[in-house]
Amino acid sequence: MTSVTDTPRQNWAATPVWALIAAFGAYFCMYGFRKPFTAAGYTDWMLWGIGYKAVLVTSQTLGYALSKWVGIKIISEIRPEQRATRMLLMIGIAQLALLGFGLTPFPWNFAFLFLNGFPLGMVFGLVQGYLEGRRNAEALIAGLCASFILADGVTKSVGGYLLEGGVSESWMPFTAGLVFALPLLLFVWMLSKVPKPGAADIAMRAERVPMDKAARRAFFGKYRPGLIALSVAFLLVTILRSIRADFAPELWSALGFNGKPAVFTQSELYVMFGVTLLNGLSIFIADNRRAFMASQYLSLLGFALILMAWWGLGAGMGGFWYMVLIGLGLYLPYVAVHTTVFERMIAMTREKANIGFLMYTVDTIGYVGYIVIMLFRGSLKSSNVDFLAFYNTLAIGASVISIGATAFAVWYFSRVAQR
Fold first, then answer.
1. What's the CA gap between 53 and 51, in Å, rounded?
2. pLDDT at 200
3. Could you tell me the pTM of the whole model?
4. Which domain holds residue 372?
5. Residue 232's closest CA among 365, 334, 383?
6. Domain of residue 276, CATH code
7. What is the DSSP string of 285-329?
8. Is the residue at 157 inside a domain?
9. How many domains does one find in the chain?
10. Does 6 map to a domain?
């Protein structure tokens, strides 16, 4: 007879639920160090004739984009046992930068948002590294992506409430970081306990290995046309998503929702559930080629929803549902790239690779494109610019081009799969 003490203990860290909660929580908390500042208007300052909020957003994005470029090497080469300590180090540096932002007078504190963005750009790859290469990877990474969809709204709400509570625009970002510091430590500890993929995972999804420079160059050269097409679509989606995220208060104000912090969270709840459900369903497609193609068709649906949101707004659809619909349209392809496109591409081709290299390559391209847009339209916050009209024009053009690029990717990779 087996006693209670002889019964094997459940290893909760090896369960998908543990991994999902840990990844969701860690990346959600990271957003508390990155996005709350965008809840403020910073309307009292200009720099070089540019609205100060545009300067701040561009400064942080420059750091984030540089981080993605550096991360192509760092994230693709990092060893699993290094991830947790590197994550805490990066977020700790980002919080110190927010301290500098609060201590330095306007308008010269913009440089600290560059220092804040640079380390934070590494965090997604560190978290994703715990989840890729598993049979349920899409569901886990969809949950991870749900964290930044929801956190984008929640952290703005936190920033808005802190401002309403009397915290100044210069100290609000640092204060918001303190709110998320303790839960971050818990979730990173949970991540550190997640075991590596097992033999069954490797058999179905291919082994994920570090990639040196030669391996990265060979992989990209082998699939260059298709990867370029995917990068074009991801570039345009990143630009639209980033503007929607960083200038959400301006978009909501143009739609008649001025001064309502809760609306940031309310809209993103709908977006999060829709995007997570649709992208997570790909775990039920066992065949890697079919799952890859399904992700492309899901991306095409997203671009169609963006066009539908623009048409619906002109036809009298409410501003709240416009933001929800365009959010769904943007995040369906954006999250598909994170969850399924590269995960199943590696599994389909059986290449010795990892998602980190591919994600950080397209992320670099996406954020550089966003910086160009921000520099070109540095006067977005000025009174003579119809921000909503500008955004809709950009959304229409980006969606049409992305449909063409995605259609080419479908054609190219259908030929690759037949080799």
1. 6
2. 87
3. 0.78
4. 15-190+200-417
5. 365
6. 1.20.1250.20
7. --SHHHHHHHHHHHHHHHHHHHHHHHHHHHTT--HHHHHHHHHHH
8. yes
9. 1
10. no
